[in-house]
Amino acid sequence: MLSKKRKVDIEGRIFNDNWKDHFFFCEVNSKPVCLICSQQVAVAKEYNIKRHYVTPHGEKYDKYAVRLRMQKVNKLEAALKKQQSVFTKSRETHDGAVKANKIAAALKPYSEGEFIKACMLTAAELVCPEKRQAFGNISLSRNTVAERIGDLAGDLNSQLKDKVKSFIAFSVAVDESTDMTDVAQLGIFICGVDASLTVTEEFVEMVPMTNTTMANDVFSSLVKALDRVGVDWSHAVSMATDGAPSVVRKKAGVVVKLGETVQTGNPEQEFRNFHCIIHQEALCSRTLKMDNVMDVVIKTVNFIRAKGLSHQQFDILLSESNIGHGLPYHTEVRWLSRGVVLKRFFQLHAEIGLFMNEKGKPVTELDDPDRLHDLPFLGDIIEHLNMLNVNMQGRSKLVTEYYNSIRGFQIKLGCGRCNYPGATQLISPLCSLCVSLMGIMTIWTGTMTKYHG
User: Fold this and answer.
1) Residue spans of beta strands (DSSP E) within 314-407
2) What number does CATH give the domain 167-274?
3) Best exposed site among 242, 311, 349, 367 by fewest CB in 10 Å?
4) CA gap 155, 221 in Å, rounded
């Protein structure tokens, strides 16, 4: 029968002070360190320490008498402590510098840290040459920046865990989207309130869904992410989604599964499901189709942007006209894309008409004044919708603010000063959104009354 292998950390080995005089060793952070070469020995065992001393250093240092030997030990130990103090100051400078740098906040590559440091050294030579060494001690390498960001992420995660413990009620928001590498990414957010009515909104985790994205997969990833931060499932009150079928399905959706988990911990807890308000507003804005305009715009933009040669030739035409901005793509996934494309298309409609005529693909709608009027109108309406969408975004907003934004925009559309039929096309879906917001406000008020009377 094989015996169980002993582990070094449970053997309880203790550093012997006599090893300092005999073998030139001292203890640093519970590890034996050679005073001569600063090398660590893994195990505080006399045989290992003696072997290290005899092999590389014994022949040179055995000749010292007792008194000279003690003086040499003291000198080497003082040098080691001085070296450690230098590293400590350098590390403090490094921490302060990395805190100050904005590389990660600006979404820049970590490798740009070295370029920033080179610029700092050049500026230091001109402005304060005596401080150049202090700037030189700052480490902005990729590994250093990555490690610092990792430390910050760990600290934020620890703070979130402490905050979650104080929640008397919390809600969850999930959104799934596919990145540029065709991997589905599940974004998970949490919003909670403590006994003092302090609201906390935090991003929990971005979970890559490398396999399938069925309801069971989303639910499993969601539960694991929230369990890591230590949520109390009995305090969950709601979940906001983008309305995907796998999430809101009545029999086996993520919402149903999460509600069952909540009621397991608290049978009396009522768990609700909400459709993301901003996503609902984006869906409402799509009711203003105006296909007579959008079909022409999308077809023309795709013709210019789909082929590299056409795109290059169109950019040359713009540069000859001293126009610095080009024509962007229209993307349905990006909610604010349509307004940007319409605005840019109208600004460049003369150049676009000229270019399409040269290509033998004339856009007759650009020559018809009556039909051309629809383009700026739709562009203005979509621009106002984009402004509404941006105003609804942000942290620490209450449902009353969303209601005021939607209701105010709805009143402007129905004020009677605009008789264009396309404007009134938005009023009906926005009314439905206002009704749903009113329902959310009622539920929100009821939840606060439940916990605070």
Assistant:
1) none
2) 3.30.420
3) 367
4) 22
